[in-house]
Amino acid sequence: METRELTCIGCPMGCQITVELEKGEVKSVTGNTCPQGDSYARKEVTNPTRIVTSTVIVRDGDKPRLSVKTKSDIPKNKIFDVMKDIDAAIVEAPKNIGDVIIDNVAGTGVAVIATRNVAKA
Amino acid sequence: MLSYDIVIVGGGPAGLAAAVAAREAGTESILILERDHELGGILNQCIHNGFGLHTFKEELTGPEYAYRFMKQVYDMKIEYKLNTMVMDISADRVVTTMNKTDGMNQIKAGAVVLAMGCRERPRGALNIPGYRPAGIFSAGTAQRLVNMEGYMPGREVVILGSGDIGLIMARRMTLEGAKVKVVAELMPYSGGLKRNIVQCLDDFGIPLKLSHTVVDIEGKERVSAVTIAEVGPDMKPIPGTEERYTCDTLLLSCGLIPENELSKSAGVELSPVTSGPVVNESLETSIPGVFACGNVLHVHDLVDFVSEEAKRAGENASKYVKEGSKKSGREPIKFVATEGARYTVPSTLDVDRMDDLLTVRFRVGAVYQDSYVSVYFDNERIMHNKKRIMAPGEMEQVILQKKKLAEYPDLKTITIKIEKD
Fold this sequence. Notes:
The structure holds 2 protein chains of 2 kinds. Chain A is α+β, with helices and mostly antiparallel strands. Chain A is 18% helix and 37% strand.
């Protein structure tokens, strides 16, 4: 039996939730004081995901950096792999919000897209 | 002299939303003045997501949220001037500006909307002992350097203050390869959102030390180490609890202060609690025709609320230009924030000038669990809303109905307080 301690992010209460797992299966969720905490805890221990936001170098733009994000959430344990790909990317201006910067970042099947407009300098 | 119906000081989220709302309310002649080289304000450097859940029902990054409003400003062909600093606002609403192309300029405004935002509390205001080497940044400065300019302020980082910007920068610096050693927070609770504590600190194993502060900064040229210590209930460091962290960077995330130098020199009355203007139900300051919204009025945690508030300021400025001040002649009702409630925005209410509903925002001074937000009309309790949790970091609100207020024609004060039962 494995136990995991989590802080719920649903509201400022920040309930301390304890999840008991057996062979990756959630056996019990305790410590939460509302249903939101239960579903948060179940997702967080079985399939935690995050949106990653960062910047890439943009050449010939009116700004030196282009802000980007993963179009949808990616597995939490892939955050640093995603960052490696983003840090290696260099793009040419112009770029607009929503433009795909990396097709399939770190093999996650998720695209990295621009979150602002950078015009040609 | 140039003249506009409405001059908006600041092209950030508050200024943009005020401009759009004023145009939608029918005012053609609007000018936004922005000191930076682009519109969007602080959102341009807030590249993380989580903005807009209330306004757009989706999670956007800061630049995306700003662009939604910028696009409306462009589409409506609302005028704006970039790289333009407002030097002075006079009590009769003459706005003095300066920029490289026009030099010094004066603009006569029918109404002024103050939307200058806020500033971070700097080291000088924190009384931290130790040397004054390079490597000490406010968290927002570091955010601008990393996210907009593409520079890393340092590699080994200690953060003082657990406000949201500090937490966000702990993650951001970590993602870019820095080692964030500790976040120290003076208070026994964090001012940041739980979500940020989990996703910016816990995700990366960054320790958060509550009731801790910086007691020494070492380094002559560049920061070389920072010592933190636990503080007692009197907020004084407890001898023997010192821990020394070698590092090259100290980030400060110790609160935001509305930027009201212009308001002050114009003669606008400021609240000692919020450091922002005292406003009535129309978000009008003590100077008729001068309105305020966003972080210059009081520091917000959610930009969605800034946009909503700024919309009201824009609409009311438009109304003022068209109709002038329509005061009922009756003494306005005063809001009193007490027993746990620190302040209210607005501070006064003229029932004849309010819409059907009025949102009154306030903050609590400590963490309250299973307590009630109570609203008293003079001595009669008319609202008693149970809240599971209230914290200083999260703005609270109550909504007053005009219909209900009409039943109290002689009302003098509305009191908001926190009650245990």
